[in-house]
Amino acid sequence: MTAELSELSCALGQLSSDKSVGVGAKLRRAESVGAMEWGDDRCRGAGAMILRRPRTEQPHYGRHLGDVGYWGRYVLEILDRAGLSRAKIESPFVGTFPTFLVGDLVVKLFGDTFDGGDAFAAELAMGELLAGVPEVPVPAVLASGRLFGDADGWSWPYLIMERLTDARAVREVPTGRSLRRAAEQLGPALARLHTWPAPATIAARDPLPALRAAAPDRLRRFGLPHQLVDQVPDFLADAPADRVLVHADVTADHVFVDDAGLVGIIDWADAITADPWYELVALRFDALRGDPELFTTLLDSYGWPRPPNFPTRALQGVLEFQFDAISTIAGLVDLSRIRTLPELADRLYSPFC
After folding, report:
1. Distance from the Cα of residue 188 to its chain's centroid
2. What pTM did the predictor assign?
3. What is the pLDDT of residues 159-209, one digit of tens each?
4. Hey, what domains does the chain have and what are their CATH numbers?
């Protein structure tokens, strides 16, 4: 294909994939296509700035992940395509994907590492699913698209979302009334979420069998003592095959509150169908700071069942969990003194039965 045809193909593909706010924004985007050059690993925006395809190899990617100087040009190009106003670009906490605050907006780009394609599809699907559902408050998705054509490499999909400007992440909030109120409101929100049918793009992701199979190696890396790691396969052998739609990473960075309580739950890129007990792990040990009173409040407001095997089912969720909860648990329990996984389950969860 000639360079001219390649550029035209990429530009037309961009028009079809960009989902922006309002017809006016789409018209402005259409008018700007002629001012863009596509091809190889670069494109030229309306401001005649050459944009090269961002690199994701390490250590380059990690070094620049929260670097406004590196990503600012891409963020401005994304805003221009959507017909949205420019503002000061700020970097919040550094996560998995480049994410930036711009006035009352959030711009998030998805690389080809860390399952970026699936993460983009999941976050977009959840934003669309939960739009206008007040029981599960989420930031509105205002626009989506791809920075590059995908013929010559990763297309760098992106989302533009509403910023929760009048709220703070739970990690920034001292323990108090707003946190207790948030725990009360998180319960019903997650109970509602867990009843929703999963979008097709998320239902197609079924990581639970692989997470269970890889649990011993993963937990050993996280620091679970060897005498407990050896018991993991048998402990998970009778874990039910139940699946519900879960956020899967409800941490203190992803729950936003104000004085009245819960304002929004962000970062749905890890949403999957999984064992419902999987959802409790980040809540218990991160969002709710390991506080038994807050965890009890959440369980009560959710209406979470308290069967006799509650400790076993809760620990099965911990062992399935893809992120490291063991480091936090080790701060609550001296794992070197625990001989069996049932003993650990009772130490962590028997007070909630």
Report:
1. 20
2. 0.85
3. 999 999 999 999 998 877 888 999 999 999 999 999 999 999 999 988 999
4. 3-162 (3.30.200.20), 168-352 (3.90.1200.10)
